[in-house]
Each structure stands twice: as C-alpha cells, then as structure tokens.
Amino acid sequence: MSITRVEVIPLRIKREEAYLGLLPKGADHEAYFLRPPYRALYSAYFETAFVKVTTADGVVGWGEALAPVAPEVVQQIIEQLLAPALIGRDPLDGNVLWNVMYDLMRERGYYGGFMLDAISACDVALWDLRGKILGQPVYRLLGGACRERIPCYVSGLPRPTKEERVGLALEFVDRGFKAFKLAAGHGVRADIESIAALREALGDEATLLLDAHWVYTLDDSVRLGQALADMDVGFFEAPINPEDIESHAQLAQAVAVPIAIGETERTRYQFRPWLMQKAADILQPDVGRAGISEVIKIGLMAEAFNVKMAPHLSVGLGICIAATIHTAAAIPNLFLLEYQPPVFEIANQLLATPLTCAAGFYEIPADPGLGVAVDERRLRELQA
Fold it and tell me: Is 312 a catalytic residue?
C-alpha cells in the first residue's frame, strides 16, 4: 500500500466572535489586524488548512494544520515540498516519514513555524490513515487510552467586563463545567481583579487559569504570579516573551502558581531547554503545530521531568480537535485540555460525525483512525 495523492484545502470562514470576543470596530474584514495589547496578527475569519492523503487502495486520511493566518503558506509548503516526499511511500512508516519531512529543510533552519505546521498536518493525516488501514482508533495505536473521557476547561470567556465574564462562566457552570481560563494580559491590577471576581462567584471548587499572551515583564509577572498563587489559580500561561526562557525559569522559582508555556514551540528539541532550565511546570504543545507524533514524544519527555501536559487547542476546525483528543487520551501526564465553544461549534459544522464535549469532558471518538468523518463538500464550498 502506498500514498498516491496529497491534497490541501485552505479554508477561510467568516466569523463575528472567537477566543478574544467580538471583532474590533473598524477591523478590515479583508485583511489581518492587531488587537492591542496583544501583538500578533488576527484575522476576521476562521482560517485553517485541511490535508487529504489518499492511498493506492483508495483509503483516505485527513489532517489539519493550525493556520489562523495565511493558510495558503501551509498549502504551498505541502504541495511543493512535502507531497513529493510522501507520494509512493508506505503510510505505515510513520516515524520514518516524520523524519523524512523534517529533514527536508532542517539544515536550512526551518525547524519551526510554517514548516512544522505543514508537517504536523501531514502527520495527523498519516495517523488517521494508519488507523483506518489497521481498523483501530488512533489512541489505541498510541498505546491505549489512559482515561475514558478527556477533562477540559472553557477557554477565553470573551466578554468585555469582569461582570459579563462571570455571567458567562456561570452559564457554563450550569452545564456542568468547572474549569475556566481567562484571556488576560490587560495589566496586573486588572487581571487580578478579573480572577478575583471569578473566584468569588465560582467558589473554591472551580479551577481557574490565566493566559497573559506574552505581554508582561519578569517583574510584573512575579507580582501577578504571587497574586494568582494566593487565589489558587491552576496555571499562569504565557507570561513573558516566548524567546526568554531564562526569565520564565526565574519566574517559576519565584512564584507558587504553575507556569504554562508551549503554543509557540513545535518539537521536542524546542521544549528540551524549558525542561532542563525548569522554566515551565506545564507544557502546552499544539497538535496542529507539532503533530501527533511529536506531541506524544514531548509528553514522554515531560513525564521524565514530572511536568504535566495541557495541550493547546486553538482554532483547529474539527480534524485538529479530534487529533488532540486522541493524543490527550494517550498521555499519562495530562492536566487538562482546552475547549473553545465558538470554535467547537464551527468545527462540528465541517464534520459529518460531530464531536462531543459536555459537562467538562470530551468524548473520545471510537471509530478507526481519528473517528470522525469530514464533510468534504462543505470544505470545498469554503475553500479559500
């Protein structure tokens, strides 16, 4: 059995609200925009890139890259660089194929960013393909499920005031959810007040988390981290510029709240110095940026350092979510998995077999491969 075709379908779907709430007034819906205080580009659309890998026997595997901006870049990398390296190869040679793809541009310094996003999409498709060929769900091929369901947290709480964020969290409490992450980074005092309001309203039993989106200095991170520890916050995510491992290490030693990082990193090589320098207590690789194969290796490496995993799960639209659920099922040292309700709703519209997340848990798809069927007609309609 050999791979005969690799296709890429970039998507761009109109949206009004996502992780950070309503789009800013005046945002150009045909371009990307900034959303201060955050420095990254954002799109007025849900953007992603699906990959379809087909074998000579007609078996199809689906993958997806986390591509929130410029999904056409991932498309070009796959079509021009990765597809020629995969066609004619045996899809069961998973580890071999990952290394073949990684080595194509390794010596030129492309061992992160868009290149790894593209490799990750292909890696996910190959796992889906192997599961279908062997008649097994991916989590079983990864060594089995360490848990029957995947515990998750509601991510973002995209409302403009702390009172509205509390109201939104209480709506999810009524639906059985008990863990919440605040999209913060609006100043030390404002972030403390927002978390305090949530703690007062939700009580001591709720798990509260904070994502600072890399906006703080070390000094401000220490101040905020000490306050978060006093309020029993489960983790403090992305406090300082992601390049600054040393400051994260100093922060981790200065505060009791666990420091969580990882959405910017793609490989075990990039995560290794974080573990060696004790700069993170929880790792957050994203399957849409690192792939199933590499996230499993990162998880095994983290386990040796007694560090937990809380995979990042951003704007992946269906396949990425399913792949992350299977990966999370197989990781012994899992903490929690991210759940973004607006994204999840859009993602299920692209699947013929919807995913389920209820009362604080994802259900693990049980069918062969990733266990979900893509609505390909719908994908083609939305193709960028």
Answer: yes
